[in-house]
Inverse folding.
């Protein structure tokens, strides 16, 4: 987890609150992801890819 | 040939949905021409920054003030559009391509968006709902964790800039400034950023005339640098935009022979409070992790050692994207002339201008311009 932030704005089809994260994949690129369940995680937290929703990577602790 | 800013002008800043966008630009252009003591026939070329302005806006603006028929270039570089226009204008004069050039920025966001700017939906950021407040919030949370700081450190930037803006009659949010407690208690937007830590959506225009000869009130552009963001990817530990700002600043120091210690006043990109903190540090004006504290202690406030954003910044003067960089330049010209009234920074000789344009997927900002104005060393 490079960083994460709760978003309290409606953006496109997304209703607030939702949590976005920038995640450095092991040996791979930095990707934008949604955290499930909602909630910020400290930078450096290891997360796993839980799946995909609406074309987005979904991660969780 | 050192280019000299000989005239500046701006419209008022606010929400003007019933105005014609051309009329906003005309107010700025007419003031700048008058300030420079020039007529439209004296201008050789125009560079116009606008992000969401309609097609043909550049030529329509020029035609309405008697400037039609000269070479005109429209520039879109997100929030840095106006500053890139200024950079190109000074480059044209510095290299002898033109003698007198006008840079114009204009935006009318109130007729384009009902709320915040919607991210480009074909970008990964847009698809995922990463509006710009959220992009900056991610950087804020990373920064706060790296430096073991509390979110309250961000709020001091808003208090400082909104106080300065309360003394700027052209500011969008120029009313009574909020207290620290009010900034902290305003509604959450993204991560640690509250509403009063986010700039307003602003309509307005600004214009700057750059010429090849000194005048009594002219302000030399000692250096200017324009950097497009490199890829921002895994393994880069620096927050988004930091490397791009630092690269542009490094070039300006090299061009001018001056350094951060020579700067008396600065206008920089504070679309969100964390933006000013990161930029202050990337420019070398503060040690990493200290810019928020410097604001809290008054060092970067009006009356402090290095006032930053004496205009009120984007947080208070407002953020009419394409016009922002030129509004920043106008403020610094007034400061260097000693014409800023109750916002005046005493004995200002060197001023630093920075604007960051952001948003494109996967890169460390679309564009950043850093320029150094003031007396020759």
């Amino acid at each position: 987890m490079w960083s994460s932030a709760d978003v309290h704005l409606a953006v496109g089809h997304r209703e607030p609150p939702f949590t976005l994260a920038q995640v450095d994949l092991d040996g791979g690129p930095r990707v934008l992801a949604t955290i499930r369940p909602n909630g910020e995680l400290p930078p450096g937290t290891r997360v796993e890819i839980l799946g995909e929703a609406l074309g987005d990577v979904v991660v969780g602790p | 040939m050192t280019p000299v800013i000989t005239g500046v002008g701006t419209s008022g800043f606010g929400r003007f949905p019933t105005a014609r966008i051309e009329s906003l630009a005309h107010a700025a252009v007419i003031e700048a021409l008058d300030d420079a003591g020039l007529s439209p026939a004296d201008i050789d070329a125009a560079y116009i920054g606008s992000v969401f302005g309609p097609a043909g806006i550049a030529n329509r603006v020029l035609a309405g003030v008697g400037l039609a028929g000269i070479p005109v270039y429209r520039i879109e570089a997100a929030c840095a559009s106006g500053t890139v226009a200024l950079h190109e204008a000074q480059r044209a004069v510095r290299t002898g391509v033109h003698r007198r050039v006008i840079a114009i920025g204009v935006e009318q966001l109130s007729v384009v968006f009902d709320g915040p700017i919607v991210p480009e939906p074909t970008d990964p950021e847009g698809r995922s709902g990463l509006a710009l407040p959220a992009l900056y919030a991610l950087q804020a949370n990373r920064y706060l964790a790296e430096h073991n700081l509390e979110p309250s450190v961000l709020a001091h930037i808003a208090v400082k800039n909104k106080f300065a803006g309360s003394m700027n009659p052209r500011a969008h949010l120029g009313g009574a400034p909020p207290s620290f407690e009010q900034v902290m208690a305003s509604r959450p937007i993204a991560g640690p950023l509250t509403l009063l830590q986010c700039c307003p959506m602003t309509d307005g225009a600004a214009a700057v005339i750059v010429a090849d000869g000194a005048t009594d009130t002219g302000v030399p552009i000692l250096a200017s640098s324009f950097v497009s963001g490199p890829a921002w990817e895994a393994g880069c530990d620096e927050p988004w935009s930091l490397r791009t700002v630092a690269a542009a600043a490094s070039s300006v120091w090299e061009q001018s022979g001056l350094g951060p210690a020579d700067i008396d006043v600065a206008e920089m990109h504070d679309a969100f409070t964390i933006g000013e903190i990161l930029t202050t540090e990337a420019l070398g004006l503060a040690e990493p992790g200290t810019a928020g504290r410097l604001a809290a202690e008054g060092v970067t406030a009006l009356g402090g050692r290095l006032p930053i954003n004496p205009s009120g910044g984007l947080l208070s003067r407002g953020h009419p994207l394409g016009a922002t960089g030129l509004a920043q330049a106008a403020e610094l010209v007034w400061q260097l002339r000693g014409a800023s009234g109750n916002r005046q920074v005493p004995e200002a000789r060197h001023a630093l201008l920075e604007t960051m344009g952001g948003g494109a997927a996967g890169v460390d900002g679309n564009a950043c311009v850093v320029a150094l104005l003031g007396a020759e060393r």
